[in-house]
Structure formats: C-alpha cells, structure tokens
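dumping these here so i dont lose them again. two proteins, back to back, each one seq then structure tokens. dont judge the mess
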Amino acid sequence: MLRLRKALYGLRQAPRAWNSKLDATMAELGFTWCATEHALYTRRRGKEELVVGVYVDNLIITGAREDFASFKAEMAARFQMTDLGALSYYLGIEVRQGSRAVTLGQRAYARKLLERAGMANCKPAATPIEERIKLSKQSTAEKVDTTCYRSIVGGLRWLTHTRPDIAFAVGYVSRFTKDPREDHWMAVKRVLCYIQGSVDQALIFPKSGGSGGGELELAAFSDADMAGNADGRRSTSGVLILLGATPVAWQSLKQKTVALSTCEAEYVAVATAACQLVWMRRLRGELTGIEPRPPALKVDNQPAIALAKNPVLHDRSKVPLPP
C-alpha cells in the first residue's frame, strides 16, 4: 500500500488540498484571511498594503506597484508560477487600465454570444425588455430548442457580471429554462438586440476618487414590483450598490414569499439591499483597515420607509417570527 505525498489533480480532495496549502502559505507570508470574503487576503507591513484575490490557482494582486516585486519573489520561491503582468483579461472580463480610470467590460464575450445566437447583424433595441411584459410557464406557444435556449440564457447570465442594466431582463427569461416557448425566446432575442446596440458599455472606476477628490462613499438603491410573476404572484426585488458613481454590486431576484401589498414588497427589497450593504461595508473596512462611514440606503416608497423606522405589526406587514 502506497501513501501519496500530495493530492492528485482531478480527484475530489485536490481542490481542498490546494486551498489548504495556499492558505497556509499566505499566513506564513504575513497575510490575513478576509473573514467577510474568503477569497481575499490582505497584508499591511509598514507602508506596504497588498490585497490578493484568489480564484482556484489564479491570483490577482492590487496595491502599490513597488510592493508587487517582493510578493512575486516570495511566491516564486514556493510555487511554479507565471507572471502575466498587468491585469487585462480575467474570466471573460476585459480590464483596461488607463491613467485616469480602470474599465471593466465584456465586449468580446458579448460579440461571441451574438454570433452563437445567430444575431450578429440584428437591429439594435433601445431597452432590454418590453414594458409591462407578462410571460408565463403555462404558455401554449410553440416549443423551442431547450438546449439552445439554456445555452444563450446562461451566456447572458455571465454577461451580467459587468452589465447591471440587463440584470432584470436576464433574470426574467431565466425562469423559463425548464420548458421554453416561442414567446420566451422572443424575449431573449429582445435582450440580444439591446446588447447589439450597447456592446461597448462597461463599468468605469475613476482613479481620482470621488467627484470632489475625497473618499468614495457607498450608497444603495432598492426597488420592487408588485406581483410581477404571472405564475406564483411573487414580486421581484432590485438592488443596486454604488461606490462613488460606479456600480459595484447589483441583484434582481424573485422574492421568496408572496407580498400582500406594495409596502411589503418594497420592504422585502429594502431588507435585501440592507444585507448586501452591510456586507459591502464590512468588506471595505477589512480591505482598507479603516471603519467606513454609514452608507445611504435610498428607497422610493414612503410606507416602506415608515415601516423601517417604526416596525409596527399590522395586517399588511406582518412577518412570522421564527419558532
């Protein structure tokens, strides 16, 4: 019987063994594991401030340029590694680092998706989805190729990593992947037509800080529809979190419960936004070492705001307490 000294690539225990090895190495090098986001490590040593992001065996380093060399030398002494230089392409996301801003986009990926769907030369649309559209799983329209539908919708979901403007539309058409019909496919094509007209759209992160050159502030916006789902009468929550003027997190998802009023639907969306905002604030504090100021949470529903300030239980806002 032989005992291996290391995990074999492709076996179930290999990812865990690699993660344990990398985690031990980062701790040995003086890095602190980020409790809020487990894939991040930080190191503050004198004037040095480094943040390392981990995705399997790929590392992204950010910080002062003069601190990179020492960290790369430390890692090269322990692992066989390849230095790819400044970040330019990562997991389908194009990164352009200019003198004034860093831009994240997926132009090439969007082009490939349009070609795969056979819509490389389609007419652009002004919006990603029709206003007040109502689609149902009980549709009697003609069936479409399920594999093709799931492939395109899956590609659209990956595109939402840098496109918050299509988050709701993509989430909506994703509800019909089990048994897609012709009217569902037409909604997907509408999203693709919108992408055709906005293929160069990207996220821009200015290097100069806030609009006044000061500290960037976190702010969140939340919204919800009322019984927008035609099948289960559930509402949809929408959340957008900004750092300065740039979106850094967004979410569009069907609520888990059936709201009895607009106030309740908005309140559920506010709770979702608050959870994301608290997590984002904690993460920012760990990365910078500075306790950030309380962020702003903006809601456009007065009853939901009043309920958040004074959670009085009544018929339209009762929430069952856990046992």
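---- next one ----
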Amino acid sequence: MKKITFLLFSITVVMNAMAYDATGHRIIADIAYHNLTTKAKLAVDRLLGKQGIVYAATWADEIKSDKKYDYSYQWHYQNLKDSMTNEQLENLYQHPVSEGEHLFYAIAQMKARITKDKKDTEALKFLVHFMGDLHQPMHLGRVEDLGGNKTPVKWFGKTINMHSLWDSYMIEAQNYTYTEYSAYLRNKFESAKAKYLKENPIASLEAVYQIRNKIIFYDYTDTNSYHYTYLFSNDLDALLFRGGIQLAKTLNELYK
C-alpha cells in the first residue's frame, strides 16, 4: 500500500511539473492565436484543429520520450555568451549553423519547411514550440551551466535550479490558468501592442537577451523570493507577450 501511495504521489509531482512548463507555451500560443489574420487562423486550424495551436504548443516537449525524435533535443536551446553585441546576435541568428544545429537553426528550418509545404503539420508544431523557447531566457543560456540547469537557487525555502525557475516556478507564482494569463497580458499590453508588432525577430531576440543577462547577473544571495517575483514579473509578462506576437507575425507571414 505504501508503494502504491508513493507511486501515485510521484506521478502527481511529475505531472504538475510538466503542466507548469506547458503553461508558458500555451500562453504564448493563445496570444498568437488572438493575433492571427483570418487566413492564417484558417490554415492553422485546418492543420491542428480549432485552437489546436494551443494544444500542440507542448508537443515538441512531449516527443522527447520518443527515441525517433532524439535528433531534435538540441533544437530547444541556443547557447549564448554573456557579452554579445546586437550585431553578433543578429549574425548568429542569420547564420545559426556556425555554432551547431540548435534553436536558431531549428526555427529557420521549420520556416523553410512550411514555406515549401503549407501542409507540413510537424514543422508547424515544432515552430510553435520553438518560438516559445526563443522567448524563455534560459533557453538562451550559458553552455557551461546548461542554461541554468546547473545553477542552484533558493525558492521559498527549497533549492531548485535557475532554468526551472524560469520554465515553471515564475509562471506558477502568478497563479493564473493559461487562458487567464493570456487575457491578462492582452489587456495589459493593449496600448503597447503596436510597438511589439513593429519589432522584427532580431529586435525581439535582443530584448530577450537583455533580460537573460539581467537574470544571470542578479545577486542570488538575496533569497527573498517575493522580492524576486516583484522585480522580474514585468519582464516575465513582456517575454510571454512578445513571444505570442512574434509567433503570430511569423505564422501570418508564412500563411499569407
């Protein structure tokens, strides 16, 4: 009986952890869905089902358990140095294979696949997810600490790592469902939406990179998690909203 109870508890913990990671991707996908053109929305719905962009947003993580997709594991991240100039970022984004086949490469490849075949459902599901990863700053982390996975931080009395803090815990701390968070962000940034729509992918990447460095160089001897949440909540909101807008712009262009 004890073994069964422990097993059920373990499954619950794992499922909750996966759900928190999923929330961020669904928020970005939902924001994108609300900003698709009529033509792009029809095309995406035909491939993924009505609002399927939201439900498919986690697919690229779910297939990590399938060995036939092992080749895509390194597509989820792009290792970056701490002191890159905007010109260096742009050059790497435009010539991603210079440092291997990672996130920038994957985004370019999925866009090329969809351009060639508008019915390439797999490429679309990958792209939806990777545009989310592009706006998660620890997916643009340091190679030496595996994007924050090897950097321990204190979070409300327990030790986690910096990557999971930004993958899960920061979003969890807002205590919204993905639909509530998406609606909140669309309302919050309504007056600034025109500015975000004018951004190209490079400008968006540069903004994410600035927040990434702010996170990395924060003084983590300050273990006041309420202070950390307060300090970074606006950055988190901007990352999610920016990700949704950039995903929408990308799909609107591909399915115009």
